[in-house]
Amino acid sequence: MPSRHPAVRLLLLALVGLLLLPLAATAPASAASLPSKKKWVSDTVAAASGSRTYLQQRLDALEEGDDPLAITLDIDNTSLASHYDPGKPVVAVLKLATYARNHGVKVFFNTARPEGKVAGAVASLEKAGFPVDGICGRRSGESLAEGKQRCRAEFADQGYRIAVNVGNRSTDFTGGGYDRAYRLPNYGNLLV
After folding, report:
1. How many domains does the chain have?
2. What is the CATH number of the domain that holds 70?
3. Which of 49, 64, 76, 183 could be stapled to 82 by a disulfide with Cβ–Cβ 3.0 to 4.6 Å?
4. DSSP assigned state of 170
């Protein structure tokens, strides 16, 4: 049965469309809004640029009695690709970790993953070729930033100076406890 008031019907449809428009504008961005893998790799290489040179400068400046150096690495979309190539190493970070190990620098991982799940992470990291000298996960009830800060403090309490800290989210860097940060791309927190 056709509507007696097609103009009213059209007006109601237009109003519903206008009401739904803000919802569409605030919807989370989809994977389609992330750049290509090629762009991500390029951006990652650019972000990590200079990290090995800086680490070597820190090694060259060490004096007798100084704390030995360490680097701390986040895992997801920092050391291991989680979005673009799940489980595979992020090559620029693997090169840094390998360089560190070959020059006597400890390689520690600082992850937001729960403490109870770090054993699986170690296996994944080693399978991807990473040297693992230690790993620290988030405790129950800790925020991401609190967990990262606590883990860096624990590594420092073991007698190491964290020369380089690599991550891809602001929570990877909150609170300091390292000499230099290298922030990999996360495209507005779309890479989680």
Report:
1. 1
2. 3.40.50.1000
3. 76
4. G
The pTM of this model reads 0.82
Does residue 21 sit within a domain? no
**Amino acid identity of 67?**
D
Q: Are 81 and 70 in contact (CB under 8 A)?
A: no
Give the pair of three-digit tokens for residue 66.
């100084």
Answer whether residue 108 is part of any domain: yes
Question: Residue 127: inside a domain, yes or no?
Answer: yes
Six-digit token string for 12? 């109601």
Q: Which residues contact 95 (CB under 8 A, 6 or more apart)?
A: 48, 52
pLDDT tens profile 68-109: 999 999 999 999 999 999 999 999 999 999 999 999 999 999
Q: Does residue 114 fall inside a structural domain?
A: yes
**Helical (H) or strand (E) element with 14:** helix 6-26
Domain that holds residue 147: 31-183
What's the token pair of residue 109? 């991982």
